[in-house]
Every structure is written in structure tokens, then in C-alpha cells.
Amino acid sequence: MRAGPSLLLRTPSGGGRPLRASAALVLSAAFLMVALAGQAVADESLTAIRFWTAPDHTRIVIDMTGSVEYDAGTRRDPDRVVVLVKNASLDGPVAVTPVGDGLVERVRVNELDGGAQVVLDLTKASEYNVFPLLPYAGKPHRVVIDVFRDADPRIESAREIADRPLSHRVVVIDAGHGGEDPGTLGNGELMEKDVVLDIARRLAAILGEQEGCEAKLTRGGDYYVSLRKRKELASAWNGDLFISIHGNSAPNRRATGTEVFTVSDRGASDQTARELADRENAADIVGGVTPETGDDVLAILVDLKMGDRMQKSMHLASFINGELTEEGLGPVHTKRAGFVVLKSLAMPSVLVEVGFLSNNKDVAKLKRADYRQQYAEALAEAIDGYFVAYAPVAAAPDGTHEVAPGETLWSIARRYGKSVAELRNINDLADDCTIYVGQKLNVSGT
Ligand SMILES: [Zn+2]
């Protein structure tokens, strides 16, 4: 049972002083509240069951009228996950929910004396996790059951990509949010998770048709992908570019247009950059800090590694700015998140906020399929421009490359159209070795 409102009602000076009449009234009112709350606990209802199938897990979401306690366990023959939602009853036609995604066959609910028993019939014994979710974005109290697949087919596919021809480019497209996380809801007409997934898919389709280019989506459907998983996928695929797609929102409903974010690691060492960052932060405070700026941008970009790719990221951002502006899809603002970055990006990366879902005009545009297609095409053009600018170069005349500050084995390998493994091999470098500034590496391939 959940705890009711606090019963502790103390007189200010404590001890055995008699309660005054008014305090006694308050006290009895408090008891009444507790009694009502106690009754509500026994009466919580299970109102709906939803599910999301992701490549690596299936998420079952149980909507509740209030917070509840639960017990979870597994049963064999057949394999099941069983969750008893204590003191809850069934309210609504949710007795059996067919899932049939190869991992979870169906979800059944049995009403028992102790509460509502939720049974997941599995195709085989699988790892699982149960946790509560608090009300958010119009969603009620929820109990979430994740059932995991043995392997993530997206990670498995990384092996094929590792063997790709060196001219082959991999663009990691990261549609924000998904599943139980709708992102920003804007004016209520559009959900961020839907808009960004659509643009991401369109971009992937355009890039996928191009010779020598492969687009990988961290999220290809409506399901939740953790930030950790997004990074894991991006690095497993060893992408040449990472583009995260989000939708903006601001308390100032006039805020409009695209914002392209890159991360700067100059915040601490460069006074100009610091002042710029401070100014941007101040502007954000005046204009209203969006949750995006606080959560998505920082969390996604900071945690990715960033070395000499900062310059490339900014270059990509300027290509995106140029293409969107040229196509009449502006206004576009490129921004650098102003803070000290301790880690480096794994690959050149940008985060594109495709528009403000808090702005009526932006929403009207983003609701149009032809606009989203045009937007995706402009992003694809920008990525093309970037790849032309950073096409692999021929080896130096003597076949060596002198390591410059900020360079990594990865960036040198890509520059000379080689794989990291190949570069290690040619130079007889151990897997755990580090390179140093001034070191000469053989990049000629012999
Ligand atoms: Zn977002």
C-alpha cells in the first residue's frame, strides 16, 4: 500500500500541551483525508494495457488510476512473467491484449483477491524488468514491464557495416523520444516523437537510395530508446555522421524556425566562447529554456565523444543552415551548447530542432507531408555537401601522416579512406594503444 498523507500533526512546542479547538478540527480533517486516501488505494483500477515493440525489447504499459504496489515473478511451462498489481481491480475491456511480436504472445489480466494479476505469455524465458512511471504529459500512473530479446539485431548488423567498403558512408539518424516518451506536445496537435520519426525515415530513405551511403536509424518505429542505447548503436555502427532530430518548444509562442546544435569544448579555455555561451544561456533564460536544451541536447551531445570532430560538426551545421535557408525552410539558427565538454564525440554530430511545436505556423508546416519531405531532402543535400568536403584524401607523398592535436585513429583512418583496424595493422599498433601528437603513421597501406 502506498503511504497516505502524513499523519504527523504536532503542536509547535511539542509535548503534552492540550490541543486548541482549531488544531483539533484540523486533526480530524486530516484523519478524514487519510481515510479517503486509504479507500482510494484499495480502489485503484487498471484502465488500459498498451505495448510497444522495439528491436531489442517489448514494453508493456499498464495504465492505473493511481500509484500502486506490485510483485513480479516468472513461471515456467509455458514461460510467463506474472505481475500482481496489489489492491487493484480491472476497469475496462483489457482482459486479453494480443501482442504476437515473437517475444510476447499476449497479455492477460486475472482478477484475484489480492489485486489484478497481469500475465505476459512469452515465446520463451526472457529477461524482464518492472518499474513504475509517474503521471506525465497526460499519461496516468503506470506500471511498465520490459521484456528483453537475447540479442539486438541492430547491434548484430554492425558487424556487416564494419566490413563495408571504405568509400561507403554510414549516417546515423537519431529520431528523438518515442513510445511512452512523446517529447514536446506543442500546441497539442502534434507529438514531437511522431514528427521527428517521419522526417528521420524520409531522410533515411533519401540517403539509402544514394550510391555508397547507408542510413541507420536508432529508432525506426514508435518505441522508446534510451540515450545509452542510442550512443551504443551509433558507436557500434561506426557512423561517419550522427544527426539527431528533435522538435522544439518555448514558452514564447512566437519562437520559430530551426535550431541546429553542436557542442563546443572550448567553453573553459576560450574567453570569447565562454562569453558567447553565457550570452546564449542568458538569451535562453529570457526566451525560456526549453527542456530540449536542458536534456536532449546536452545529454546526447555531451556524452558522445568529441575530438577533432567539433570543427566538422560545426561545418555540417553550416551546411544544414545553408541548405534549409536556400530551400526557403528558414529561419535557421546554429547554436553551440555553451559548457565544458569532458568527453569527446564519437563522430561528427549535430542535433537539429526542426521547428517549434509551440508555434502555430511551425506546426502547420510540420503537419504537411510535402514540407517534411522537402525538409528531409534539404538535410540530405547538406549531408552530401559535407561528404564532398570531407571525401577521403590521398596519402601524403611519403605515405605518412603526422598526428596533429585532437586527431584520433578514427579520424585519420576516415581521412585516408581506411578502417581503424587496417591502420592499426599497417602500423603494428596494439588494440589498446594510444597515438601521440607528432607521431608518424603509415597511411599508404603498405
Ligand atoms: Zn526532443
CATH hierarchy class name of the largest domain? Alpha Beta
Regions with little confidence, pLDDT below 50 for 5+ residues = 1-41, 266-307, 338-345
Average per-residue pLDDT, rounded, comes to 76
Query: Taking strands numbered 1, 2, ... along the chain, how are they ordered across the largest sheet?
Result: 12-11-13-16-14-15
CATH architecture heading of the largest domain: 3-Layer(aba) Sandwich
Tally of domains: 4
Distance N terminus to C terminus?
A: 70 Å
Alpha-carbon Rg, integer: 27 Å
- Estimated structural class: alpha/beta
Please name the fourth-level CATH homologous superfamily of the largest domain: Zn-dependent exopeptidases
What is the CATH topology of the largest domain?
Aminopeptidase
Ions and ligands:
zinc ion
Largest sheet: 6 strands, mixed
Number of helices: 12
Q: What's the β-strand tally?
A: 18
Strand residue content:
25-35%
Helix content: 25-40%
Any descriptors?
single chain, 446 residues, alpha/beta, Aminopeptidase, 5-stranded mixed beta sheet, 18 strands, binds zinc ion
Can you describe this structure?
By secondary structure, the chain is α/β, with parallel strands linked by helices. It folds into 4 domains: 1-6 and 19-42; 45-148, Immunoglobulin-like; 154-389, Aminopeptidase (3-Layer(aba) Sandwich); 400-442, Membrane-bound Lytic Murein Transglycosylase D, Chain A, CATH 3.10.350.10. The chain contains 12 helices and 18 strands. The strands form 4 sheets. Strands 12-11-13-16-14-15 form a 6-stranded mixed β-sheet, sandwiched between helices. Strands 5-1-2-10-9 form a 5-stranded mixed β-sheet, with no helix packed on it. Strand 11 (169-175), helix 4 (192-208) and strand 12 form a beta-alpha-beta unit. Helix 4 (192-208) crosses helix 10 (369-389). The longest helix is centred in the N-terminal third of the chain and has 22 residues, at 21-42. The chain is globular. The model is unreliable at 1-41, 266-307 and 338-345 (pLDDT under 50). The structure holds zinc ion.
